[in-house]
């Protein structure tokens, strides 16, 4: 067996440009089709530019492929991200109720976990079930938390516990859900027991863990456990079941009017909201705190802004040490540890002790001239400006909106 002798001179000349010593870098043509074609970085960069400008298109979803661009491509060509999918249960085999408190007009952490428990039981049965969220009217994010259907409780705030229990009992009797889940906290715990007793149903309260086949409850002072198949009525405490984190559900309004004739308890003659004085509340009881730091020099303007915003005034340790605010207004590890929904920090840099005092606050707004302050890093919304200039502007804006609302 023989083979043709290689001619290295001819091969070198074939890889050269014009017979010169400068090599040809067209590897795809010179070496053969088995090699990978050469990348064109300029064309790839043009594909990522917006309207052929230096500004790059940022693909945060990491799902868009590079857009090939060439001399004949239009500069406005771009890809669009796919719309998020929505989970739809058209014909459920059964229903699972999730009774939500939704205090202050929004879902709490425990409410989301109640929906997660209902989603767990709805997906476990044969044929697939649907989760029905029973909540006051106007609550959003029910679909993102796992609700396929929604039953709105209109006038829920005007009802007593017996009237509310009677309304939910009518829903249970009309729709016959397989499971009804409540929160083992506050009014939800009392409501679950009222409805279960009136229907003569077994109820399993304050579960330790819940799965599709088994519900576990502690007893005898947490020394033993009682377990069995999940009953119809269940109450769960916080952090017993994970919240739903899958594809958003439909959250469609369920047909049926269960609010007619039950808008209020006949034992209640009149309901009138009484506004409290935020400045008289303690920092541990309030939901909105407006706090002053070393960057605030006009304390009277600060107090006027706190009153206009209906917030409870607070302060950092530096302000309280200077005698500008009482010691009861001090926020931090050495003062009062907050659990407020919103915390507005004016001119506070963010010492470690102060940040420990606001660790449980859900929303933090910072006003500071230092972009790299620790309070600005902690805040969900930051205004990089002088607090002395922001306070009168913010108060004027609040006063103007109040005049328009009258």
Molecular structure report:
- With 406 residues, the protein is of the alpha/beta class.
- The protein has three domains: 10-39, no CATH class; 95-253, 3-Layer(aba) Sandwich (Rossmann fold); 282-405, Rossmann fold.
- Helix content is 26%, strand content 17%.
- The protein has helices at residues 8-14, 27-30, 41-48, 109-122, 161-175, 187-198, 299-308, 317-321, 352-357, 374-378, 387-405, and strands at residues 95-99, 130-136, 149-153, 179-183, 203-210, 215-219, 224-228, 233-236, 252-253, 288-292, 312-315, 342-346, 363-368, 381-384.
- The chain has a nine-stranded mixed sheet, with helices on both faces. Strands 11-10-12-13-14 form a five-stranded parallel sheet.
- α5 (161-175) packs across α6 (187-198) and α7 (299-308) runs parallel beside α11.
- The chain is flat.
- The model is unreliable at 30-34 and 67-81 (pLDDT under 50).
User: How many extended strands?
Assistant: 14
**Rg calculated over all Cα atoms:** 32 Å
Number of DSSP helices? 11
Overall pLDDT, averaged? 83
Helix content: 25-40%
User: What's the CATH first level of the largest domain?
Assistant: Alpha Beta
Global outline = flat
Order of helices and strands: HHHEHEEHEHEEEEEEHEHEHEHEH
- What separation lies between the terminal Cα atoms? 103 Å
Spatial sequence of strands, sheet with the most strands: 7-6-5-8-4-1-2-3-9
Largest sheet: 9 strands, mixed
Give the name of the CATH superfamily of the largest domain: HUPs
Strand content: 15-25%
Q: Please, how many domains? A: 3
**Residue ranges: pLDDT <50 for 5 or more in a row?**
30-34, 67-81
Structural class: alpha/beta
